[in-house]
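User: Structure please.
Assistant: Input sequence and predicted structure:
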Amino acid sequence: MNNLLSIDDLSKEKIFYIIEKSIAVKNGNKLYVTMDSYIENKIIGLLFFEPSTRTRFSFETVIYKSKGNVLNYNEKISSTKKGETLYDTIKTMEIYCDLFIIRHPDNDIFEKITKYTSKPIINAGNGSYEHPTQSLIDITTMFEHNKNTNSIFKNILFVGDINNSRTINSLIKCIYKISNSINFYIFSIQEDFNPKIKNFIKNNNIKITRVFSYDECIKDMDFVYVTRCQKERQNLDIIDYKKEMIITPNVMKKMKPTCGLLHPFPRNEEIDIKCDSDSRSLYFKQIENGIHVRRIIMEDILSKTQDFNRIKSHGTLDGGYMYSEEY
């Protein structure tokens, strides 16, 4: 792949490739731990027009560990404050950088930026629409959990700020791309999804079941994916969590022993910190997996190759579970 702007840019095979290779690197598979790095000696431009902790630092960690270099763009101390346009910023930065990693509050920002530069771009979150690298981290964590628990993935419950969650939008796309037999449930603080993902759901005839309490479905879920209330994206009345939506140890008691609890973070009040010690709480594993997944994405883009022959000819790296007919 030349860019990663949306899950739409990825094939099913490429998603499995990223999952498998990320897990192999994490587990110390010698084929990949010692592989040549395409990040080494490259200059990566991190242009974050919105705050970030995990996304920014995981990318930086990978780049530094891979002997690459980082240029951190800070809008608050940039020439934007002197009236510089986005066009001029991108045209300047492309002279310095081999790869852009960009986060921006505008849903349609990449329609503009791709007209300004031919340098490869990774979407680190655009408005309330997509966050493709996070969804690849999420799906990798899910597959890893299923392998460890010897369980099957059929049902997922999304909880929280459905309308503004770009991580949920990308994850729905990602899951649907690899399997159309997953059952989606939502327990939302709003009435509906945002228009773009709503159209995707409608055009692909994806069934979404809305629930109004955990008791309606929690015992059957294979994963529960929780998101915070994104107050910075709510322009009118602030919609907040209801007490009965907060994940507590009592709620987790109703979940299956193999069910995984995920959250892309940052966390506010939506998951009680007492749940952190439960082995089914996977959110810190998501953070850990972010380093490996984002490494594979950057390596793949910088190598400009889409060679899946190694996996296709030799099978999967960890026992063949990725291409199981169950998925």
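The first strand starts at residue 43 and ends at 48.
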